[in-house]
Amino acid sequence: MTKRTPILVIKHGALGDLIQAFGPFAAIRAHHPDARIDLLTTPPFAPLMRRAPWFDRVLQDPRAPAWNLPSTFRLAHSLAREGYARVYDLQTSARSSRLFHLMRLFGARPEWSGIARGCSHPHANPDRDRMHTLDRQRDQLAAAGITCFPAADLSWLDADLSRFALPARFALLVPGASPHRPEKRWPAQHYAALAGEVAAQGVTPLIIGTAAEAALTSTIGATCPAALNLTGRTTLLDLAALARRALFAVGNDTGPMHLIAALGRPAVVLFSAASDPALCAPRGPKVRILREADLSHLAPEAVHAALAGLDVVPNPSP
């Protein structure tokens, strides 16, 4: 039996960053159709990525603190023993670049696409830090010889939703964001006002979020009794399945909105001054970006109007 060439891809997260790498993952698999391709990611995303069609194995990086050198050395040693012919470092962080140097200490000399000093295929574009994530990753892969970028197969992102007893017409509201970045959240009272407008059009607002966001989402649900609150009850596959069936979604600059956009669903994504959509906005054929430096100043009417522009709800009543 012919030995398959081992390839490693490094991509940790957060969720939005991981989803924006789906296209590069597909391109790497297409470029190396007969290789054994491993993904190194973090534990929260390993179960999801084991279902993806692009990898033969998914390895976990526990991302030990910088002071825990024994853990980092063990990881580098285990990777060096795999005999990888090439590594695609899509994380391009100080941590992932450190693995390049540590693997060399253990005798590994793979070709390396990334930003580590001395790597064989550096992404040396001086504008890389001013490029949108998707453009930057494509440019990085082009520098490593990958120029064909097929559409990523996302058919595996689905789930059985029968346990939720969903209404026939519903829309997703995603009011959360990183816990340490409250400035990225549109106020709960605005989401509640939007939910009321949506419900008045015969569409059930369906609120999603993590268990840590329960206080936020319950505020919206209490103001709009017609809303269905699934906070803390959905997996990432559930979220994808919900997105496929929802009429549209509205949410902040947060990971689930990247997943919804990647699936081609109509979505309005809200940005504050805390992040730059030119660098990291979700992209999709039916995505609209609204940006207000202070999201408390973004009126629900503006969001509803953006939805009307997507032809998913009627224009709001005067």
N/C terminus separation: 71 Å
Largest sheet: 6 strands, parallel
Looking at the chains present, what oligomeric state does this protein adopt? Answer: single chain
Beta-strand content bin: 15-25%
Instruction: Give helix and strand order, one letter per element, not per position.
Output: EHHEHEHEHEEHEHEHEHEHEHEH
> Biggest sheet: strands side by side, in what order?
3-2-1-4-5-6
CATH architecture of the largest domain: 3-Layer(aba) Sandwich
Number of helices: 12
What name goes with the CATH superfamily of the largest domain? Glycogen Phosphorylase B
- The CATH class of the largest domain: Alpha Beta
What's the short version?
By secondary structure, the protein is of the alpha/beta class. Helix content is 34%, strand content 16%. The protein has helices at residues 15-19, 22-31, 46-49, 69-80, 94-105, 133-143, 188-200, 214-223, 236-245, 255-262, 277-280, 300-309; strands at residues 6-10, 36-41, 57-60, 86-89, 111-114, 121-122, 170-174, 204-207, 228-229, 249-252, 267-271, 287-291.
